[in-house]
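Researcher: If convenient, please comment on what follows.
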Amino acid sequence: MNANGYKYMLEGDIRYDDVLLAMVTQAGELIKRQFEKFMLFGFSGGGHFTHRFLYLHPDRLKAVSIGAPGSVTLLDETMDWWPGVRDFRNIFGHGIDFDALKQVKVHMSVGAADTEEWEITFPEDGPDVIPGANSAGKNRNERLDTLRESLQARGIDVWHDVAPGVPHDMRGVFPYVERFFNDVLRDRLPEPGKR
């Protein structure tokens, strides 16, 4: 009964990554295809889910596009889940496969005007406070920059688009996502980096 449960992969005994994998299997059965690897895009809460799913199942992904998540999980082993990954193995039963992670094409997108803080700031005295929850930055732009830097520090290439004048609106970033996935499929990606 937690509307945000999927963002963090766990809610009680529900593993939302397993839910998505079951959906992919079911879709394949319906059209008589197998999807060993697929591409995944998520915006806002979906951006939370997408990058955390990437950590759990890089072997299942060809490419991901992470759109404007309000909070991020850094590849930081000094903080526990979800701000960091120190206890990742204890929670999920396996570590992060960094070799597989480096094979996934990773895209990020956010509107340049997506700078509101009120909705994504975790109150330090709140009942659900998690140490490090606000450590990645004040707004979605800062948090996505910090996530990109965390991935790059582990040798993972990232294509990062900032949409001029766009607030927190998926329609404003979607053309960048579409171009990225088309470039992946056509094997014509430009050099990684922030644009």
